[in-house]
Amino acid sequence: MLSLYDLTVEQKTAPLGLDEKCPAFSWKLKSERQNVLQKSYRITVSDENGTVWDSGAVSSEQSSFVCYAGAPLKARTEYVWTVEVSDGTEAAGAESRFETGLLDGRAFEGYAEWITHPLPAEEAASPVFTKIFCVEKEVKRARLYATALGLYEAELNGEKLDDTFFAPGWTNYHKRLQYQSYPVALTHGVNELRFTLGKGWYCGKLGFDPQPNNYGDRAALLAMLCVDYADGSSDVIGTNETWQVSTGAIRFSELYDGETQDTTIPEKPLGMAIRYEHGFDTLIGQENEPVRCLMRLDAVKSFVTPRGEQVYDFGQNLTGWVEVRITGKPGQNLALHHAESLDENGNFYTGNLSFAKATDSYILNGEAQTLRPHFTFHGFRYLWVEGLEEGQEAVFTACHLSTDLRQTGSFACSNKLVNRLQQNIQWSQRDNYLDVPTDCPQRSERLGWTGDATAYSPTAAFNENILPFMKKWLLDLRSEQTPAIGMPQVVPNIMGVGQTGAAYWGDVATVLPWTLYQVYGDRRVLSDQFDSMKLWVDFITAQCGENGLWQTGFQYGDWLGLDAEMNALNEPRKGATEDYFAANACYLWSLQILSDTAKLLDRTEEEKKYRALRERVLAAFRAEYVTATGRLVCETQTAMVLALHLGLVEEKHRARLAAMLKTNIDAHKTHLVTGFIGTPYACLALSDNGMHELAGKLLLQEQNPSWLYEVKMGATTIWERWDSIMPDGRFNPANMNSLNHYAYGSIGNWLYTKLAGLELLEPGYKKFSVKPQFIRGIEWVKLRYDSVYGPIRVEWSCQSKTIRVEIEVPANTTARVTLPERDETVELGSGVYTWEYATETDLHQAKYSMEMPLRILMEHPIGKPMLQQYAPEMAENPMIQYVIDEPITALLSYAPQIQPLFEAIIGAMNAAEE
Ligand code: BGC
Hints:
By secondary structure, this protein is an alpha+beta fold. The strands form 9 sheets. Strands 15, 21, 22, 26, 27, 28, 29, 32, 33, 34 and 35 form an 11-stranded mixed β-sheet that branches. Strand 37 (433-434) and strand 38 (436-437) form a beta hairpin. The mean pLDDT is 96. Bound molecules: beta-D-glucopyranose.
């Protein structure tokens, strides 16, 4: 039977407070029949007076992002929408709803005023605004619309209004400020509305050198409660000078530093609210999903450190805060410090928090209390509690906060370390998606760094539905751009206008909209961002010299790449790849995306212009950076990866370049030394150029630097640096060293597209390819991705001489499947398909191999004694210390005769393992 499910408007289920004038409808088809394709759809939208739009029957396979095209929608109105679909054999229908918001922020005008408190601007305590009112008639519907300069939490009759945090979110407040819409259940009789405000991103401290008042110096509130009564009348209760102001328990609250609450002091009335001039022009309805507490974690252990700190370990590095349940003594002071790590001696380590104090403090009132902060968050795994009395009972629960995005992807395989890596990727994503995509959640930054988003977004879009979240951020990005700076380096831009756009960081302006369009198929993201893409590319063009290349100005380069000798450059954090090589490679990439976008949007003139420009820049790039025989003048891993991945050398030079990349990786003993720009594409470039097995070895590399090195060192999130914690267990002393940065999590994209083998061929995965590619050491893979058409599943295994592949193709899509070790490619419609066939391939990878460093053998309880017994002269030779970290294969070039002995020792080590 054909059925429809997952009806969404703007990717949200039955949203309330939608401000999109022509919202887009999506639905999914389900059927147990195979090869189901939608032939036609019909949408109707109605309000209580009848139909406002009937699309009529439309012959089309489109089942997502069909835009409303009826009479203008009315504000604050509930609509029911239906969709009927036929696949030529059967028909199906379904119904859902949505409710518009104010549609125009100026709707507050005349009903509510901006209000503030009488305290001086530098006052640290949180102001509380309250209004008591009476409801005497039967209420049909009540909605609250609210926003703040700062952050707010709203309560009705002593209960928090909903389960969301950090409203109104972070946007470019100068131009865009979100308001939220809430359904409200009023009590007959007396009601009290209460708003507590925090400084948040608006007037709290932000930046590496944290400064307050980035947008203004006063917290202020704007709210209106719209009540419709059963008798047809209505009331609006808006903020104005009749509201009361007080201060309560929250004495201090800053995003980086934490929150202080004194629960012993009574609420202090400050009189009436004061009118505040701010205007309504920047107001917009909430665009992305709200922040919620997604998980609660108990401490896995508590202990006292050598330094005497009482520490709780939650077993997971996370973003959020700690809730404490305790009955204290009146006036007892508790301080909760947060940190990501212990140091090498097991003491609480805060050395990587920069200026963030990350401490919440509570003065207890002697009763049983449950306390949590409101306007701060921390990045932590460990909690150090000061002020507990000997034997005093207290329960500490870590609350994991993140923008509540729908999880869309999952990946698992036969290697436990890789599975932990995948979990770490997903944790770092949630930890850094707190209303805006940030770099890190713990130190005094937590900013919307653009380069990190360029690197990570393709992986992110697999793990969660990031469309509304990123569309919001892109609108802020667009609003921050000027021809003079091209692109801000962080969005929202609190760094001011002094900094101009840098390559790769700025390229998020083209790469992200293109990625979103590909993954979800929502063309509007391209039309909305087209001018922004152009502005960025035109900015670069304006920087170019006579040779047509960008070779001036500040660049981050291959940030944190390991191939530059420390201090060899004036910026030791950059890899060796020449800044402008990378900048021009990215310029070419952006030009490509811009031309393709212009084509899609039928902007023929612009398409022609930017394609021609790309041709000229490509010629200049080759003249400058590629030798006549196809070598690069800058032969770093990142440079070669970019040239291969972005197609920057002539086809005839591709094989040569691929071989040089392999030589380089071999010379680094199968390690990457790439930074932010090279890492996301390294394994992709290898797999696409006949070196999938080498990509696999990089994935499974366990020595530093590598992804699994982090995992083996106990990482529970992705680190900022390959060696954030060094092999000797010491914390890398570099001043900038977070354990929760997602850029290197971009390997996720390779896991899904190359190892599992799922790649999109048409936007939204309307058509996709499945081409699993084996690597030694991984015997099975299971991937599931919830596309806008429904779940795609790819499962393969190669075990006991049998290859098994199972895939699920959702209705209304087509898959092109290439099975391992079989040459032909088949095209399949929707359905579930299984194949099973014989193979000679054995993917089992013994734990120890000739490629491991000699050290592992020398530290092994069987390995060392065997070497001592059969080759004592070698085992005891003091020269061995010079090759101890070399792979054993490398030693064979000095002494090929030792191969059989080493094979025997390694065989024995593996046998002991099994
Ligand atoms: C951030 C990065 C960011 C970088 C700019 C750092 O401080 O944490 O992730 O992209 O600055 O290079």
